[in-house]
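User: Can you recover a sequence for this backbone? Please restate the input before giving your answer.

Assistant: Of course. Working from this structure:
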């Protein structure tokens, strides 16, 4: 599918479109738009949220249903974070009504539950295509975990960010600290983590957490969707290669990063894609690049 004809397949052939409890999903022009749709609850992250998001993202990723993903929300706030009811589940619960389990056994199960929650957002970081996020109003608690796993963040002027976990007596554990420390200066991470203060959109831009701030939600979405469409027009192989290299450089030394890009280019440098890019520019048209292949999970 090219960016121009990315939505020619009937909607019924796209499982990612739902229906879903917490999301609306639209795929058009090479862009998958995932929208949180529970504004009456400030888009809190109920159990269905955690079950649905990774299924949607992995379906788009594995089946190459789009070349770029946009996440946005509805209502006054992007998301109020983890719904308190979710804390009743996981490794520490005693749902069977029996005697309290050995605390060490319970702790081991809780560790795996937390890792599962982390994976629900790691799928954004690991997706082959870039993930852009448009944030309005509050981006609180678990919403910071989610948005920090995205490639690029944009916000409205009224947006704010809050490591809410410290305000309810716990340490944030679903991805905020490992990722936030790579995105903004450590002193800011520590202030947000220790105090639970709100970080304004403007200050978030100043310290590099968001790329741009917009006066209205409409202007925000217009910009983010336009950027996503621009990305969708590029070579998917070059885009995914760029994401892989940026993530690898983030997690490794400069020497390791230089070696890895050399290995990558040895195996995946696509001269034909470069030729198409030059030809399309000379002919004043959009380039026609092949999509990545769907992933195989069985023999």
């Amino acid at each position: 599918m090219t960016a121009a004809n990315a939505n020619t397949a009937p909607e019924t052939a796209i499982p990612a479109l739902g229906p879903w409890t917490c999301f609306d999903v639209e795929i058009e022009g090479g862009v998958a738009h995932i929208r949180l749709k529970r504004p009456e609850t400030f888009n809190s992250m109920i159990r269905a949220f955690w079950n649905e998001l990774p299924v949607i993202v992995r379906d788009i990723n594995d089946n190459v249903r789009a070349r770029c993903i946009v996440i946005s929300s509805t209502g006054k706030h992007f998301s109020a974070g983890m719904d308190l009811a979710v804390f009743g589940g996981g490794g520490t619960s005693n749902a069977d009504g029996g005697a309290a389990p050995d605390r060490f056994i319970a702790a081991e199960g809780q560790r795996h539950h937390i890792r599962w929650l982390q994976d629900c957002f790691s799928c954004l970081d690991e997706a082959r295509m870039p993930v852009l996020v448009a944030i309005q109003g509050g981006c609180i608690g678990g919403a910071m975990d989610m948005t920090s796993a995205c490639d690029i963040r944009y916000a409205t002027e009224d947006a704010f960010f809050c490591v809410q976990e410290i305000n309810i007596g716990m340490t944030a554990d679903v991805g905020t600290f490992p990722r936030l420390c790579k995105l903004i200066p450590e002193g800011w991470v520590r202030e947000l983590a220790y105090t639970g203060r709100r970080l304004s959109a403007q200050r978030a831009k100043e310290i590099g957490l968001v790329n741009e701030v917009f006066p209205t939600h409409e202007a925000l979405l217009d910009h983010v969707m336009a950027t996503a469409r621009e990305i969708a027009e590029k070579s998917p192989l070059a885009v995914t290669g760029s994401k892989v290299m940026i993530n690898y450089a983030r997690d490794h030394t400069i020497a390791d990063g230089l070696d890895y890009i050399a290995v990558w280019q040895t195996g995946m440098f696509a001269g034909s894609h470069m030729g198409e890019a030059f030809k399309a520019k000379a002919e004043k048209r959009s380039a026609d690049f092949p999509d990545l292949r769907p992933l195989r999970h069985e023999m």
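That completes the design. Strands lie at 23-28, 31-36, 68-72, 131-135, 138-140, 152-156, 160-162, 198-200, 212-214.
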